[in-house]
TrEMBL record:
Record flagged with keyword Nuclease: yes
Official protein name in the record: Restriction endonuclease
Domain Restriction endonuclease type IV Mrr, residue spans: 162-281
Keyword annotations: Endonuclease, Hydrolase, Nuclease
SUPFAM superfamilies for this protein: Restriction endonuclease-like
Length: 307
């Protein structure tokens, strides 16, 4: 009574989106299951934690991989629509699976960022103990967590980009506090006035006594790369405050010239791009919460020692 893996959901999902409408995944899930010919018994099967059915769990991951490949877009949370690339894929008549998606650079990039282990997450659950696997169960669990965190990082970045510039400036201060700089927000960090920041978006104490201050700059860009001119302007703003240390955080990336420039100046300016930003937020539990905890137990050899 087991289900096929998540890849089998890809073609039916695209077929249910072929009319071009923007819909919630929940609104078309029944049509996808009907196209797959799933039985009532199969639709009742639930993943080990009992919170979700296997069918919807695999449908969600099919959607995720199609989004990564650019065959589906998500104009807003929980909604999806097919792209021209997705329509072209359907028109070929080929089975849409990971092998097919590998022709798209965006999908290969996602696979690379998850260390080519994303397949481990959504195979039948018996794959975790499959003796034919070239990875140990612990490695497969780690690979699954890595895939989940890679996808979560994308969601975090999208949420940051959807927020206001003022929210992003406060987020930057909150991140520094979460990393252990200064102590509490009340006496350690602040976001400056949005329209009168003079090139500085936040200030934080490097230590709890405030012996030295760290100045922050936050740029919420989507496609624009932060260049050398932006970093030079930030360095100039530090001069105005007689500051020697700064952190420049962006949701995009930095140009080669910008990266080289910080290595040439006396001031200590740390550059944090979008990828590093989401990694730091995950590491320090900012903007995320623990969904589920798994325990991996080992034998306690001392317990079995006999006198």
């Amino acid at each position: 009574m087991s289900l096929s893996d998540y890849q089998s959901f890809m073609t039916p999902l695209l077929q249910c989106l072929a009319n071009g409408k923007t819909v919630k995944l929940k609104d078309i899930e029944a049509s996808v299951y009907q196209n797959l010919g799933l039985s009532v018994e199969q639709l009742k099967l639930r993943i080990p934690n009992g919170k979700q059915t296997y069918a919807y769990h695999r449908l969600q991951w099919a959607k995720t991989y199609l989004v990564k490949a650019g065959l589906i877009e998500q104009p807003k949370r929980a909604f999806c629509t097919i792209t021209s690339k997705g329509l072209s894929a359907l028109a070929t008549g080929e089975q849409i699976n990971n092998q097919y998606l590998s022709q798209y650079p965006e999908f290969l990039d996602f696979k690379t960022r998850t260390k080519d282990t994303s397949d481990s997450l959504d195979e039948n659950t018996t794959s975790l103990v499959n003796s034919n696997s070239h990875k140990t169960p612990e490695e497969l669990i780690e690979a699954a967590v890595d895939t989940l965190n890679t996808n979560l990082s994308d969601e975090i970045l999208q949420a940051v980009l959807s927020a206001s510039p003022a929210f992003f400036e406060n987020l930057v201060v909150d991140l520094m506090l979460a990393m252990g700089y200064g102590g509490s927000r009340k006496d350690a960090g602040q976001a400056t006035q949005y329209t009168q920041d003079g090139g500085i978006d936040g200030v934080i104490k490097e230590d709890k006594l405030g012996l030295e201050m760290i100045y922050l700059q936050a740029k919420r860009y989507t496609n624009k790369t932060v260049g050398r001119a932006d970093i030079q302007a930030f360095a100039g703003a530090l001069d105005m405050h007689r500051a020697k240390k700064g952190v420049f955080i962006t949701t995009s990336g930095f140009s080669k010239d910008a990266l080289e420039y910080v290595g040439l100046i006396e001031k200590r300016i740390v550059l944090v791009d979008g990828k590093q930003l989401t990694e730091l937020m995950l590491t320090h539990n900012l903007g995320v919460s623990t969904k589920q905890v798994f325990e991996v137990k080992a034998l306690d050899s001392d317990y079995f020692l006999e006198d």
